[in-house]
Amino acid sequence: MFTTIAIFSVALQPCAAAVDTAPPPGIVPTGITLREVLAHHRTAIGTPAVGKPDTRRETWTYTRGDLAGTQTTVSSGDDFREDTTLGPFKTARGSYHGRRWEENENGLIVDLTGLHERDSVDGAALHESLITPHGVTLLGEAASPSASYVVRVEPAGGRLEYVFYDKTTFLITRIERLIDGQRVVETYDDFRAVAGVTEAWHLHTSDGRRYNDEDWEMQSLVVGTPSDDAALHPPDPRGSAMFSSTQGTLPAHIVDDRVIVTTQINGRAVILQLDSGAAGILLDRSVADALKLPIYGKQTQTTAGTYVANDAVIPTMTIGPVTLHDVAVQTAPFHGWAGTPISGLLGFDFIDQCVVHVDYANDRVEVFAPGSFTAPSGAISLAIRLDDRVPALAAKIASTRADAFILDTGADRSMLFSNFTLEHPGAITDQGLGEEITAAFPFVGSFSGVGGEVQVRPTQVQSLGIETISLPNWLFYVTQHAPGFEIEDVDGLIGQDVLRNFDLYLDYPHLKIYLVPNSRYHSRWG
Questions:
Q1: Looking at the domain assignment, is residue 431 inside a domain?
Q2: pTM of the predicted model, to two decimals?
Q3: What is the CATH number of the domain that holds 383?
């Protein structure tokens, strides 16, 4: 869940821990070549039986932390559908005729547009390395955790991986991946041959943090039998939103540009912040306990800091004219303030089921049933992607275009992430104000977020462009050593400092954001 909350503050902070990119220990030179390792591996995994349909049906038992469930995957050629149960929650994902999709615990579906392709890039690089190795090198061999050849994978556009090939079988028994600043270790064993192909029937992953281990054990595998095409179709969305009217005003106020909404949960008032940068709904754990919500499982997560989160279910949640039933939410330690205590975040699982209008200038928030909404005349239309259940859009920093800025009503300030700053250092040349702020406050800047603090430094860029809008000399904050806070492959945030100059319409159902310049905009730029 991507969240940015809280008040920017200046504070002296310790340096963040360095990301562990070092090769596995104990590697020594070897006499074998990369080409030989990969060729032996292809022989070891085998070749699918000829003349049978390219279909599979897999059933697995699955555990994550202390929650248990099952996973079923059906595939035919490039099409597949994977359904997972974990405790009381159901999710799914798949690809059908080129459409890639994911369904979350509340039955809401997003299409994947290719924002995250690092794993695919790594897989392609390994596959092609028998012919031309790009970003793939054999480091040597290691005796621990088992006798293996170790291959380093880091192609352009991919991620850093270390792949272990067993010295005897040449099967992959271990992969160490760098994901969001965490070193994730995957192990494979219990190899079995079915229909000419040898593969692992037991998989385990760990990122070294408590409660996060995942485990899969294959229970059955059927290969090469005719498949039912209907089993590959994406499910119908099953969101629970019910509208008492097709349009209404939310019980909300805009306080210091934060949208503060009073919701009713099980008949009790709970104040949340409307946050388009949140990939779901988040409640403070103490509030969830006071409401006596059923709590499931534990996960260790890192956003602005590291914390333990739980899953929960809200039987009934009412936000103005909208009522949600049996809503899956996350709980975590959360503390916010906007003239009143804030108990959490109202994100994707609400916004995706309606159209939300935020009128910053007149302190008003409206909601529309998706079928009743018509875009306002003269609005600037922005296409968005919801791969991460937060709205990603294109923007320009000076003359440099980037395709993945998150429009974030929960961010006090617009921000630039390392994905952008490392690739385009010339675009973030300070125009003067950033240096003035740093001179006036010569400490490491930081802001509070879910779980802790994120270090930032100010920089004033030449301009910020969004479609036909051009905002000159715009101040951004640049994150420092914050891979857990940044979404991988995302360039930055468009925050309240920009949004308050517009009437904002969040139209997730139609993959649109609409901006209408308001009185603030006109008084500043004409």
A1: yes
A2: 0.92
A3: 2.40.70.10
